[in-house]
Amino acid sequence: MVFAQNTLTEIKVRSSNPGHLKMFIHIPKNHRDSLKQMPLVVALHGCTQNANEIAVQSDWNKLADYYGFYVLYPQQNFLNNPNECFDWFNKNDIEKNKGEVYSIKQMIDFVIDTFSIDTTRIFAYGLSAGAAMSVALLADYPYLFSAGAILAGGPYMAATNPTAGLVSMTSPKNKTSKQLGEVVLKQNPDYKGKYPKIIIVHGKKDPVVNIKNSYQLIQQ
After folding, report:
1. Catalytic residues, which ones?
2. 102-133 residues labelled b (16+ CB within 10 A) or e (exposed)
3. How far apart are CA 150 and CA 198, in angstroms?
4. Which parts of the chain have pLDDT scores under 50?
């Protein structure tokens, strides 16, 4: 483990890491004093950001120290995406057990195995591209998460290639609730449990991601 700025610890990923992502974690200050298992928040940054920036801008680490929970910060690799966006628009990065979404799942598994985590209280939080990837996590691994917070995101499988991704951001196609829901159910056809609750936050005048994407996420 390598200690980085802003009390983030970089962990060298030893799993298969098919998405070639980097991994950082914030360990709460009082973790050694507590015999209880602590919750885990998975925080996914937006485009042109990194783990340290979203940690500073969101204050997740301060909250973690005060309330007692771990924060996992997956970070995009420049070689994957020059804008440092998670590739939420690539089918091979968002389908269950593939690419970037599977790398993040492996990171969560590592944190669960390494630290004292309350597995009934694992949460996903994401901004923009990170929000879209958070939706992919919730869709692919619903049994793993208690809830998620989606900031300026959109529905799962809104796009399956970069060109379609650009279109869906500005002018998403009309889809029925059934169409939107089917792509989620397809990832876990035998799953009978509950899906995570989500909080959706989106500005009506967002110039980058059309708020219609969040309306479609509500339908989904």
Report:
1. 128
2. bbbbbbbebbbeebebeeeebbbbbbbbbbbb
3. 7
4. 1-5
Report d(CA 94, CA 89) in Å as an integer.
Answer: 8
User: CA 16, 17, 22, 24: dihedral to nearest 10 degrees?
Assistant: -70
pLDDT digits (tens, 9 = 90+) for 132-190: 999 999 999 999 999 999 999 999 999 999 999 999 999 999 999 999 999 999 999 99
CA gyration radius, the chain? 17
Nearest of 17, 206, 70 to residue 128 by alpha carbon: 206
Mapped to the 3 state alphabet, what secondary structure does the chain carry? CEECHHHCEECCCCCCCCCCCEEEEECCCCCCCCCCCEEEEEEECCCCCCHHHHHHHHCHHHHHHHHCCEEEEEECCCCCCCCCCCCCCCHHHHCCCCHHHHHHHHHHHHHHHHCCEEEEEEEEEEECHHHHHHHHHHHHCCCCCCEEEEECCCCCCCCCCHHHHHHHHHCCCCCCHHHHHHHHHCCCCCCCCCCCEEEEECCCCCCCCCCHHHHHHHHC
Dig out the tokens for 94 from the structure.
């968002």
Q: Which residue has the tokens 């998670």?
A: 86
Tell me the two tokens of residue 98: 């593939």
CB atoms inside a 10 Å sphere around CB 90: 21
Rounded to 5°, angle at Cα 47 from 46 and 48:
115
